[in-house]
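As a warm-up, study this chain.
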Amino acid sequence: MAKNKQKGKKQQNVFRVANKQTKQKNKAKPVTSTLKHINKVKNEKVENLNKIFTEVQQDVRSVSKCTAPVPRKPTPVVREAPKESANVDGAAQLFSQL
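Now compare it with the structure written out below.
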């Protein structure tokens, strides 16, 4: 099944490169600083909008207190009683003619 299995331990290289340069791990990345700047600007905009909306909400509350709704009386619905009763026999005769 496993054709690529190695049968013995692999030998480590005897010769190593002496002046191999390593990567700098602590270097600041420009993407992170740009994202921080974008988040800062976004947070400022959100705070500004929150202030504006709280002012609008307070204005709406004050206006709604001044103009209280006038209570309405429901208008009564008048139904007229039918003057003539339904003529069932006459309707049956008309259907029979069809």
